[in-house]
Every structure is written in structure tokens, then in C-alpha cells.
Amino acid sequence: MASFLLPAATRGQVMAFYHFARTADDIADNPALTADSKILRLEALEESLLGHQDISTFTETAAHLRAAVNGDEVLLGHAAQLLQAFRRDAVVDHCRDWGDLMLYCRFSAAPVGRFLLALHGEDASTFTASDSLCSALQVLNHIQDCAEDFRELGRIYLPRDWLRGHGLIPDVLAEEATPPALRQVFDLALDHVDALLDLARPLPRALRHRRLALEAAVTLAVAERLSARLRRHDPLARKVKLSRLDYLGAVLCGLWRGARR
Fold first, then answer.
1. pLDDT (tens digit per residue) in 17-50
2. How far is CA 191 from the centre of its chain?
3. CA distance 71 to 52
């Protein structure tokens, strides 16, 4: 989030948001906590974020974010929306269909982009393209981590109706290699990701803040490369990641695109 492209003046606020999100994610993914305990901790995190509760060990990041943005209600509202996704993670282990997955992304991913846009004074008209980019990145991450999410957390973010329609049961994600039917599901998800990226491409040109526009352009290039790599490689056999050369290419491509906006 707080890359070198963003202005130094906002990096502290961006990192405060990041640490808040990491704290919430760690709560939702903690195997030692019951679902009820997770919900209670997430609620305490939100209370601290909104300034309604004394600071405890796991709510420090919420209080720090509140202080970092000087209690800005719009920025804090975007942060609070993330907690809806983490509450869902505490009690729901699957997505029914693509629409359900996109609803999850609305709260797990879109608030990140909206926070950055609001922090840099961008207009709400940019939210649609930003939401598309953030949702695409979230689904790419789900595909990358599908084996780990299933084996360690029992979660399946691929649409369940897609798996069923291809004659698959959830246990397929525990296999050591991707069978042809699951490969079709991955490719279908990537087709939808690429459609989201098409919707996101106007974002850099729509942004007034030059450095944020460059950040968006680079992020788009990263997503494009990761989508292409996931089409070529098996996410069950090993974690599919971009190489340093891939990232360098994405940065250069993004900077070139951003400079031409």
C-alpha cells in the first residue's frame, strides 16, 4: 500500500490503515479463537476505531489509525467496512456464487482503494474503477492461496456453484496438482478478473493526484501479469508469485502508462 510512489506525507496514515487491517485479518484467521471470540474482538476493534472504547493490546492499531487520520469520519468509515468481511470470515467458509464473492470483495478489498482515494482528495466518481481493481486483486489472491486457505482455514473463496457445475467437491483443493476440471474453474475466475481489470483501466486517467495515478497504473500492471502467470502455472502445485523481474516490468509499464495519462 505505502509504496514509494505515494507522497511521503500520507505514508504514515497508509501504514496505520495497513496495520489495522492486518490486526483484523489476524483475528479472523486465528485458529485458537472460536467464532464468537473472533466476533467479540472485531467488535472491540471497531469500537476503538470509533473512539468508544479504552485501548487494549489488540485494539491499539485501531486507536493509532484514528489518531493518524485525526478522527476523519470518512476515512474511518472505509476502515470500519473492512471489518464486515472479517466478521464474515469468522462464521462463513465459502462463497455461493460469483455475486456472493463480489459482495465479499466489496468489504474485504474495495475499502482499501476507497481509503486511498479519500485520503488523497479524489472524487467518489472514481470508486467504481477502484472497486473493480481491488476486487480483481482480491480474487487473484484467492486463487494464489486457494490450497492454503482450504487446508489451514477450511475456506473456499472460489464460487461453490462453479465447483459443483464442474463435478468437483471442496476436497479437490487439497490435491497436489490441479485436475482439468478445476483448471477450468480457475480459468473462468481469471476471465472474470480480466473483465474487472478492463473496468479498472480508466482509473489512472481519472485521478487528479499524479502520484496516486502512477500507483494505480503500476498496480494494474501487476494484476495483469499475475493473472497471466496464474493461467500458465498450477496454484495447487506451488504458490504462484511474480518474480522480481515481473515486478520491475510492471513498475516500468505502469510508470510509462501513467506518464501518458
1. 999 999 999 999 999 999 999 999 999 999 999 8
2. 18
3. 12
Chain segment 145-160, per-residue pLDDT in tens: 999 999 999 999 999 9
pTM exceeds 0.85 for this model: yes
**One-letter amino acid identity for 140?**
L
Q: pLDDT digit string (tens) for 195-208?
A: 999 999 999 999 99
**In Å, what is the CA distance from 227 to each residue of 35, 96, 184?**
33, 23, 14
Superfamily (CATH H level) for 93-261: Farnesyl Diphosphate Synthase (1.10.600.10)
User: Where do the structural domains in the chain lie, given as residue ranges?
Assistant: 1-91, 93-261
Cα separations in angstroms, 237 against 9, 45, 189: 42, 37, 18
Question: C-alpha grid cell for residue 191?
Answer: 476471465
Closest alpha carbon to 230 in 191, 257, 197, 179: 191
The one-letter amino acid code at 69 reads V
